[in-house]
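Model it.
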Amino acid sequence: MKATKAKPLKRLDAAESDVDGRILGALARYRFLTPDLMMLAGVSGHRTHLGDRLNALERGKLLRRSTPQVNFGRLPSFWWLTPKGAEQAGHELGVLVRAPSARTVGAHANRHRQGQVRAAIALDAIAASLGAHVAPLAFDFESKAEMGPDKRPESLTTLWLDAQSYLKPDFLAGVTLPDGVVRPVVFVV
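Modeled.
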């Protein structure tokens, strides 16, 4: 009897996983994530499965990623939602989700973005441990449609002190503690 070579298992890219919804939800919340940050946010407990699902969602044109950057070591790729992915995430979450604008995607500010997202994930974890809720986050790389007094697009986090003075924190959040009072939180990473 002649031995036959086993065929490799075919990947089921079309088969959905519950991790897919968690990936879309995490990217809708935090905008840009590395696989390590996804693990930290509780998207998946298995790095290999997470990588497989990210690649499948990328092939489905729901996600994009930056190319890894080499700058004093290799910086990981960031993943973000495409317009199609934002629409899918919004449908699953029941809220409006926007894809990041073209000027905010890519590997620039990689380390800083990682810090922003780590702080946001920590805020969510602390709030959850206190029985609190964190409203949607506003990051400094997101623009408002209207222009500020200096005729440049404003960030969602721009806080105008007067006609010429402003602060631009990394992100803003509203935390509702069990007493029902919303407390604003301003982060500078």
